[in-house]
Amino acid sequence: MNKPRIGEPAPWFECQSPKNPRFRFHTIAGRYIVLSFLGSVRMEETRKTVDAFFTFEDTFSALSYGFLGVTSDPRDGSEALFEDHTFAMYLLQDFDMSVAAKFGALDEAGRVKAQTFILDERLRVVANIAITSKSYGETHLSKVLEVLSSLPPIKKGRVSDVPAPVLIVPRVFEPEFCQTLIKYYEERGGKQSGFMQEREGKTVEVHNRAHKHRSDETIQDADLRAACLMRIRYRLLPEIKKAFQFDVTRIERYLVACYDGQSAGHFRPHRDNTTKGTAHRKFAVSINLNTGEYEGGELCFPEFGQQKYVAPAGGACVFSCSLLHEAKPVISGSRYAFLPFLYDDISADIRRENLQFLENSEPQQ
Question: In what ranges is there compositional bias, type Basic and acidic residues (predicted)?
Fold first, then answer.
């Protein structure tokens, strides 16, 4: 099986451990996970790597990290290896190497290739680091800690206000790709965009800067569109499926938008599927391409209060097109975002039927 790539969800599995005959991998979500395929702990490289992680056990527990060492050697089956350690340090027994196979951690001869996957709180791959004869023990640990230190801390629990049914997914676009999209916009300048209304039986684009003030640039470059689609397909759609039990098969528009502070860029409360030409839309996606360079611009869902939602740079905010939502004015700087709509095959039929009511339409994807 192919190795899960950066940003993709790690495959779920069940296996045994000395402490749990039926360990369910998906139950440990909510913390950063260090998942190390060791092959055999009796090898010098892997044993010293495990010992190095043991020295940081208190740190792992305090910072909500978890270390899972995966052995495929039946001689490592004794609980004694990990018996004095907390849940932050756990041994998994993969004697048939089925888990290693799911992660693409086997060589052509069917042997385990020692390596460490770092997973985020949603069990998506953040990094993959090989354990080699030149990089093991404390050296390997330092590489893992460098990655972990670059991730935002897991927030402590608190009593929540009434939340909108909104999904925030970090790390959909990597920083370099965000800059590529921003550069694409800036080289072309964008143009003022409107919003859709029903007029005389037709869905038409209208302009009213008091209601919406935003400039858009449609991505025409086929390679860049394919790069956007690949990241959404493998990094975002699995999270939508998990959260909403919805299979996305279509995407509408490849659009880089700019809310500019000089003109107080904004989009007052609206819904995205209230006309015949937009009735097929199921989910709106707002992928922030930058944060920190502007003030304002938050998303708000008035039906659920005045809480403000901001995805991290490269992260997505996903919500039903039926929800009333607003992009607050940008006070200074410029907010850039990638703004597609998502739907499925059934909705594609609705879109085809309603094309007769739409003045202009994009090809379906």
Answer: 197-208
Residue 273 to residues 50, 278, 321, 324, 340, Cα–Cα distance (Å)? 53, 5, 6, 10, 13
Gap between the Cα atoms of 37 and 310, Å rounded: 36
The model scores a pTM over 0.70: yes
Which residue intervals of the chain bear CATH 3.40.30.10? 14-149
Quick check: 197 and 274 in contact, CB under 8 A? no
- By CB neighbour count within 10 A (0-12 exposed, 13-18 middle, 19+ buried), where does 44 fall? exposed
- Picking from 94, 83, 89, 78, the residue whose alpha carbon sits closest to that of residue 38 is 94
Closest CA to 193 of 251, 263, 289: 263
User: What residue ranges of the chain are covered by domains with CATH 2.60.120.620?
Assistant: 167-357
Query: For 14-149, which CATH superfamily applies?
Result: Glutaredoxin (3.40.30.10)
Task: Dump pLDDT digits (tens) for 145-188.
Answer: 999 999 998 877 666 677 899 999 999 999 999 999 999 999 99
Q: Report whether CATH 2.60.120.620 matches the domain 167-357.
A: yes
Closest to 285 in 3D by CA, of 122, 174, 179, 168: 168
